[in-house]
TrEMBL record:
Domain Tryptophan synthase beta chain-like PALP, residue spans: 90-398
Subunit comment: Tetramer of two alpha and two beta chains.
GO cellular component: cytoplasm
Pathway: Amino-acid biosynthesis; L-tryptophan biosynthesis; L-tryptophan from chorismate: step 5/5
Family designation: Belongs to the TrpB family.
Lineage: superkingdom: Bacteria
UniProt key word Amino-acid biosynthesis: yes
PROSITE patterns: TRP_SYNTHASE_BETA
Role according to the record: The beta subunit is responsible for the synthesis of L-tryptophan from indole and L-serine.
Full protein name: Tryptophan synthase beta chain
């Protein structure tokens, strides 16, 4: 591993888990020894060639990495026509990083494989996870099945009702799904309950957190497992274009796929970076999930970060058409990248995402998940404004199979 030079955007977190003012580990005292154990195990694993070799092997043969880098020719042409219609000459080249082709249909598996190897290395015998839409629950249940661990997934009762196909997938994979009725019965409550389970079963249990949030060292280790995305893009873009992209775009829920794409490029300051938050029905009301654009710093789930909260500091629920983007917080590294100005975070509304979903499906024959449809909407906004020799790379972090029911309902199809 190379040591990052000073004044780098890639050096964080510090030894206490801080990215500037954000991150840290705000956990119950009983959890502290575990968190420290995890940190030691992670520090050993990340420099252990055998650990990295096994992960690389699984990434290749189980997940299907490297995922393709794809030139979206017809979307590029579409943006050039839009630019020409407005009297311009723009229309940057649009590339997709095809992480939706991974086993289980999204980037979540990159992180789950890394963490299950860590759990085995630590001698743990039981896996717990939280899930909102169920994508992380399915990925966690998948690796638990593959490695023979009992797996307990906490899921808000409201989400259990809304996401029945994923609940059944988890059960098929042998996981026990625990509906959580506290609060609004959504992801935030599921994460609280998973942390409670962890405190109670400290010795036996490994908690696979699904995004680049939670107490240190989770934001760092999830980022490092997901950084395979950005590392591959660097190599693939050099092979395809002989240079790095000009612009990167990714959707931000908790921020794991985004930081995975961004992190290897943070010190290439010529590369412009956009993180796309769920703008829901717009930022004026409370029907959105734009923690960075409309929240303020506070503490949730073991770290300090931007959060959606009311005047009394109560955490708000948030809304998005895409279940994977409605986490009321965001990983602490994104809060720091936001405040430092290295990454620009923008909101995209439900309607804009839905339009992009349909455009991509029709023009590229790729049905994207609603989460990356947000990123794509941002791509479609900026591509026509950039010269034709500019290159945009967007992370297509999930496939849309899971979303056809939601989209069908909005379009008036009964499925
Ligand atoms: C879970 C999920 C997200 C949101 O999680 P991040 O940690 O922000 O990446 C985005 N897209 C898809 C397809 C997901 O499954």
């Amino acid at each position: 591993m190379t040591v990052a030079p000073p004044n780098t955007y890639r050096a964080g977190p510090d030894e206490r888990g801080h990215f500037g003012l954000f991150g840290g580990r705000f956990v119950a005292e009983t959890l502290m020894p575990l968190i420290l154990d995890l940190e030691i195990a992670w520090n050993e694993a990340k420099t252990d060639p055998a650990f990295q070799a096994e992960l690389t092997h699984l990434n290749a043969h189980y997940t299907g990495r490297p995922s393709a880098l794809y030139f979206a020719e017809r979307l590029t042409e579409h943006c050039r026509e839009a630019a020409a219609a407005a009297g311009g000459k723009g229309g940057a080249k649009i590339y997709f990083k095809r992480d939706e082709l991974n086993h289980t249909g999204s980037h979540k598996i990159n992180n789950c494989l890394g963490q299950i190897l860590l759990a085995r290395r630590m001698g743990k015998t039981r896996i717990i996870a939280e899930t909102g839409a169920g994508q992380h629950g399915v990925a966690a249940a998948t690796v638990a099945a593959r490695f023979g661990f009992p797996c307990h997934v906490y899921m808000g009762a409201t989400d259990v009702e809304r996401q029945k196909p994923n609940v059944f997938r988890m059960k098929l994979l042998g996981a026990e799904v625990h509906p959580v009725t506290s609060g609004a019965g959504t992801l935030k409550d599921a994460m609280n309950e998973a942390l409670r389970d962890w405190v109670t079963n400290v010795e036996s249990t490994y908690y696979i957190i699904g995004t680049a949030a939670g107490p240190h060292p989770y934001p760092e280790l999830v980022r490092d497992f997901q950084s395979v995305i950005g590392k591959e893009v660097r190599e693939q873009m050099m092979a395809a274009e002989g240079r790095l992209p000009d612009v990167l775009v990714a959707a931000v829920g908790g921020g794991s796929n985004a930081i995975g794409l961004f992190h290897p490029f943070l010190d290439d300051t010529d590369v412009e970076i956009y993180g796309v938050e769920a703008g829901g029905h717009g930022l004026e009301g409370e029907e959105h999930c734009a923690s960075l654009n409309a929240g303020r710093p506070g503490v949730l789930h073991g770290n300090r970060t931007y959060l959606l909260q009311d005047d009394d500091g109560q955490i708000l629920e948030g809304h998005s058409i895409s279940a994977g983007l409605d986490y009321p917080g965001v990983g602490p590294e994104h809060s720091w990248l936001h405040d430092s100005g290295r990454v620009t975070y923008v909101p995209i509304t439900d309607t804009e995402a839905l339009d992009a979903f349909q455009t991509c499906t029709r023009l590229e024959g790729i049905i994207p998940a609603l989460e990356p449809s947000h990123a794509l909407a941002q791509v479609l906004k900026i591509a026509p404004t950039l010269a034709q020799d500019k290159i945009i790379c967007m992370n297509m972090c999930g496939r849309g199979d899971k979303d056809v029911f939601t989209v069908g309902k909005i379009m008036g199809y009964e499925l």
